[in-house]
Amino acid sequence: MRAVGSVVLVFSVAAGANPLPVPRGFESPTPPQPEASTFETDTVFGDCGYYRVDAVREAADPLNRFGALELHYIDDSLSPGVDWHLQDTYEVWVYDPAGNEEPLGYDARFEDVDGDRRPECVVTLRRVETAGNDEVVLEFGLDGFTVVLGLDEDLISLPLELDGDGYTVEALRRRYGWFAPFGEVRLYRSEEEEEGGRVPVDVYPDSEETDFYGGSLDLEDYTGDGRPEAVVYTNMGGNDPLICCGLVVLEPTPGGLTELYYEPMLAPFARDADSDGVTEIFTYTAYTSSFVVGRAYRASFIDRVFVYEGGRYVPGELADYKDFLLSRVTEEERYYAESLLGDYPEAILGEGQSVLAQLAAAGLDAEYALWWEGHREELRGATLSIHDGDWDEVERVFSTPDALRAEWAGMY
Ligand SMILES: [Ca+2]
Ligand SMILES: [Ca+2]
């Protein structure tokens, strides 16, 4: 590959010095004389010749912004060193809240952003609505502008090393108001000998059925082998984390991205619960029950654990993580104690149900029986105080720990 020379950015503002057309949005009957800004590079790419990126500023804009970039080039083979040809135009404007076109371009520079050893054109934007700066990254060449990072996009790019080689895990976030999800994760290998400096290795997911709304991308060793996994916490939006929050764990290898865990809901969370260096993943269940009083309760508790075994995450035994689960139950007990202080029967029932359901789901039978003995009078009293039905039924349900468990068994 030909050595790439240094990049020179010429930034000049000279009124009337450039005969560029007035960009869209400024074609008023008496347009002000535009000021021209030229972003120029002397770097030669391929066989094309010199490139020049221009922008036309709107003198009347209080922020001195522009609405489009233009890519020009000199093709020495056609007209050696004489004529600039317009190759492409990239528009950087949006509609403002009043429906007018708002120019966003503020500044530009040339910089090798993606590590391919060619400079990209980085356009700095300035938007009135948010009063913040942002960037758009454009590749440019014989095909004109190619968008690397477009308007309202963020690139999460995390370098890692696999078997001594350099790799990158990337995700492109697209903003929709406050919501900025990404739908795929890409793996690249750095390759000095390759044109472009890196090679696409894999993209996840490779099937349209496995769609997700990525909220974050991190590298963390879950499996305990010293190599990081790509961890994506997902969020499809909404108020209920049990329905909208999920987790994807991918193992980057030289061969590609291997899915170790995928759950788009149930608010999974990862902990090394037994401190053995390997991360476990816990999920919640949620059900609405009528309990014994004809009223609906929503209770959620950890009811499954997934453990890393045989190269992927598989269902494990909750009882193996007894100490961890009891520490979580302690938290529920605190809410239960607070509800007793408030003498609020619905809360007493709801929190007590969560504690017992958690202990039952984890198979912690001794702890369940103990908790039942210590709290059944409060639960029974709370039930009776709001009960409007069959009192004999209440007495039956609260007669033994197993009777209550059997009552709940049909609910989830
Ligand atoms: Ca690992
Ligand atoms: Ca562990």
From TrEMBL:
Q: Which UniProt keywords apply?
A: Signal
- UniProt keyword Signal present: yes
What InterPro entries has UniProt attached to this entry?
A: Integrin_alpha_N
Signal peptide residues on this chain, from the entry's feature table: 1-17
Q: What is this protein called?
A: VCBS repeat-containing protein
Q: Which species is listed as the source?
A: Candidatus Coatesbacteria bacterium RBG_13_66_14
